[in-house]
Amino acid sequence: MQRSEIMRRLRDETIWDVIVIGGGATGLGTAVDAAARGYRTLLLEAHDFAKGTSSKSTKLVHGGVRYLAQGNIALVYEALQERGRLRRNAPHLVSALPFVVPGYTWWSNPYYGAGLLLYSAMAGSLGLGISRPIGRKKALELAPTLEPKGLNGGVVYYDGQFDDARLAITLMRTAQDHGALALNYAPVTDLIKANGKVAGVRMRDAESNEEFELRARVVVNATGVFVDAVRRMDEPGAPAMLSPSQGIHIVLDGAFLPGDHAIMIPKTDDGRVLFAIPWHGRLLVGTTDTPVNETPLEPRPFQEEIDFLLAHTARYLAKDPTPDDVLSVFVGLRPLVKAGSGGSTASLSREHTLVVSDAGLVTITGGKWTTYRNMAEDTVNRAAQVAGLASVKSPTRDLRLHGYSEHPDEEPFAVYGSEAPLLKQLLGSQPGWHERLHANLPYRAGEVIWAARHELARTVEDVLTRRTRAIVLDARASIEAAPKVAALLAAELGHNQFWELDQVQQYQNLAAGYTLAGAEALVS
Fold it and tell me: Taking 90 as the threshold, does the pLDDT of residue 75 lie above it?
């Protein structure tokens, strides 16, 4: 759906059943659930879909091995069930990923083997594979660049892998398929109240500066780490709900861990799990857990976080990565709900929290990508009660997401699912559209056009960070590709050369922070 059509429909609608503020995993999932039940649903995102944390995850759909170690059986069970449902409903975006857990002590293999066998069993019929112990030779066969010194075998287990930003775009389109409107670059500036109750929102279209008053029977605040700002539109003195933390990832060439097996280190120096994951031909290593007091839209890594990941990667891989080997570094913020007793953010639960204010504002926060669907179901159940909407059972447990395909195309077109043939047809429709945007990136020029026509991409950043994953795969290459993307977008959207130049400059400034040199300069 084109943005012009969305704006036209926005002006025509008098009152919505549900308005969702926030276009990340939770907000998009809530919009899908509400629309699939038949509620008139509008989602408003201040920037672009998945601009924040939802595009900066570890790219895993997982139960949470460390939560099992903490004894949070209920959370792990819920996440494993949701992992299986998401794999079933979006096989073009979610796949099984085998992990090697290397053992360097005499006790590690039996200890982790028992825990991971329980982890596999808890998934039941929705499982992705059964864990098993392996010897030293097999461990090096499956993960040939593991540090061999002291290695005495390991354990293989299975979890899910996905492309987070592409899933977000898929959810946006799934919501559209069910009649919802979803609009990016539409910041909510205030809440509307009637008789002391929240009755809608004031929104500004960031592109035209046109202002709207939009009425709703219920408003859902699903803004992740920014939920407190929206809550204070309702209750100016509302205390903070969150103790946010940030986690960073570094991206290396895939040669650092060839093959199709990832590595999981169950306990690092800061008590977190460390992952080294093959993803789109690269190797993602992460993550850290650093408490933060501020929640900027583009968080930056701390030098100690970069040093931590490089040191731990060197500890467990035979070839030690240097700063020059880092293709990209990205940072996500976690909306961790405050713990009454304090403590480190690494120990805070990833369970979600749902609250309703006296004025009827429904706020959902916490949780993680894996459990987004369950969070959305709970949220819409509560929102329907608040609004007095007709009770409708959520259909999303078995709802196939947009582009569903049991046998997706080869990379990089797999994420388009059933629409891959249509994309390929577009790529061949104009000279040059089948050409790569950059020699070091897998993406084609025509994907820019597809993103603008079908996925509400409005800027160079939208294309290079979330419609494609160029900034993650190689930040420097994405900077070099920016002028070509700007020219394609300008021609498609009707912008002039000044817009092109401004877009390139904005993107270069942003992407510099994803290079190690740029990130270090920003935090020094």
Answer: no
